[in-house]
Specification:
CATH superfamily: Alpha/Beta hydrolase fold, catalytic domain
Pfam family, one: Abhydrolase_6
Structural class: alpha/beta
CATH topology: Rossmann fold
CATH architecture: 3-Layer(aba) Sandwich
Protein name: Pimeloyl-ACP methyl ester carboxylesterase
Oligomer: single chain
GO biological process, one term: acylglycerol catabolic process
CATH class: Alpha Beta
Number of helices: 11
InterPro entries: AB_hydrolase_1 (IPR000073), AB_hydrolase_fold (IPR029058), AB_hydrolase_sf (IPR050266), Epox_hydrolase-like (IPR000639)
Number of strands: 8
GO cellular component, one term: membrane
């Protein structure tokens, strides 16, 4: 799981619900005093498995200073959002539909689409949302040999960033670990599992308590459904490559979930910009936030300028 480096919100950031047609979602929302700049726009950040909106807390200040409105969310079943004790509501098409509803709620009066970023498992959810938005559905039958191009660009999304996310299921060693976790959640209370989930607590007691509270506040059925998605997800890169929007694949220089060469190849197949953040692992958002924010800002500003000039 990602561990935020601190928990204090920067100036101008607030914790509040994002009200959508599919319910309310807990967010950390921060906006420049004069509103997002035309080249900056609004960014919607989706956390990973066992994560939460706080995983992006170190990105809020630098991204806002660069002219972006930034909205980091707790997905259905996570931490502050919660959800019912029913695995069916955490199926990938349901989570993708949630993301579309979030984007609809964030598009301003000027109709400017949002920049979508998904970290780890959030990347799989984000790409499912993009495919659903395009009309291809969340389970398209498209291969590298037989691509199909959607008729038009998205009116919801300005760009897509996959952060430390991969082309398909986790690598084998992580598949085995995730299956063990899912089996544990099916049979044991979350408080009993916590010591094995977090065997090396952080030195900061407040952050350690937050991680425990976040784990206990996650809906078990969401953990089960998410874990099964991570170990079964097929390769949907060819379908995503057909979508006519700018794409960025960003990762650390090492990654235990999806090896860096897998992400290199995914970027090539997507025709995406590729960025590697030196010294970061699976969570460059928490491990190298300043460098990560700089790369995101450069990408989003370029997308905004190109869109305005086009």
């Amino acid at each position: 799981m990602s561990t935020p480096p601190f928990l204090d919100l920067p100036a101008g950031a607030v914790a509040r619900p994002l009200r959508t047609a599919r319910g309310d979602f807990a967010t950390l929302d921060t906006e420049p005093a004069s509103g997002p700049s035309p080249a900056g726009g609004t960014a919607l950040l989706l956390p990973g498995y066992t994560g939460s909106k706080e995983d992006f807390i170190a990105l809020l200040a630098p991204l806002t200073a660069a002219g972006h409105r930034v909205v980091a969310v707790d997905l259905r079943g996570q931490h502050g959002t919660g959800g019912p004790r029913d695995e069916a509501v955490y199926a990938l098409p349901e989570l993708a539909a949630d993301v579309l509803a979030m984007a609809d709620a964030l598009i301003g009066a000027d109709g400017r689409p949002v920049h979508l970023l998904g970290h780890s498992w959030g990347g799989l959810i984000g790409r499912a949302a993009l495919l659903l938005d395009s009309g291809l559905g969340t389970d398209p039958e498209i291969t590298d040999d037989a691509p199909t191009t959607p008729a038009s660009s998205s009116t919801r999304f300005a760009s897509w960033t996959a952060m430390s996310s991969g082309p398909a299921a986790l690598q084998d060693s992580e598949v085995a670990r995730t299956k063990l976790l899912v089996d544990g959640v099916r049979t044991l209370p979350l408080d009993v599992l916590w010591p094995s989930v977090n065997p090396n607590p952080p030195a900061d007691a407040a952050i350690g308590e937050f991680l425990r509270r976040r784990w206990l506040g996650t809906v078990p059925e969401a953990l089960i459904a998410g874990g099964e998605q991570l170990v079964q997800e097929p390769d949907r890169v060819a379908a995503l490559a057909t979508l006519p929007l700018p794409k960025l694949v960003l990762s650390g220089s090492t990654d235990w979930a999806w090896p860096v060469p897998w992400q290199d190849d995914m970027a090539r197949r997507l025709g995406a910009r590729r960025v590697v953040v030196d010294g970061a692992g699976h969570s460059p958002n928490t491990e190298r936030p300043t460098e990560t924010a700089g790369h995101l800002t450069a990408f989003w500003h370029e997308v905004g300028r190109d869109r305005d000039q086009g």
